[in-house]
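quick one, 257 residues, struct below
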Amino acid sequence: MSLCPCPPLAAAVLMLASSVAAANAAEVTVFAAASMKNAMDEISARYAEETGNTAVVSLAGSSALARQIQAGAPADVFISANTDWMDTLEQDGLIDTDSRVDLLGNSIVLVAHDPDAAPVTIDADLPLAEMLGEDRLAMALVDAVPAGIYGKAALTSLGLWDGVMPQVAQTDNVRAALALVATGEAPLGIVYATDAAAEPDVSVLGTFPEDSHAPITYPAATLADGDAAVAQEFLDYLQGPVARAAFERQGFTVLTE
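---
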């Protein structure tokens, strides 16, 4: 009687197939704006299930990610929350210009920690300074991070910025600003509508008028020094039906057909 510990043939074939698949699997590194966290968590999981490849997603403020790319950080795909940082990388020759696509749209809202806070009309008559009292207004970095840039532009357009500027608590990214409001450290904040939808511990008081700030556009592109094949595959996946559904569930406007 043979005492060979070898597995049955079927099991051996399965193990071999799994080994081959693992050897052929690819990994794509994605730098994405922090406001995309919930959607990207879902999309990267589905992408792995459907393709066998892995998407490693690094989330931060668009400015921080762009500067990391400028400093040589290895990435395959970049998704910015505004066009300016993508323009900067394009001017530096760091993205594949032909791959660039306007992927998503968004809006900015005023959120409160108080679940019973009454909705307001956001216009030039909004008594925002009075609403704050001596407390803070949470915003992403107003001169670097897109959500903060849009928020400052909107407040400036409405004539409200000078009145609240000394009370603005700036954070490295929009999700950090959201967290300040969610935990009650700041009573009010300005974040993307998609961030507010993802956080049950804030309530939306109102949406800033579209004409009070530049259009909120999320461009995506592959990096010039990245793995071109797997990067383009993932960028295509971001424009497909699975990703579209995930983005729409989070409240984004999908700009691609």
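The two ends are 65 Å apart (CA to CA).
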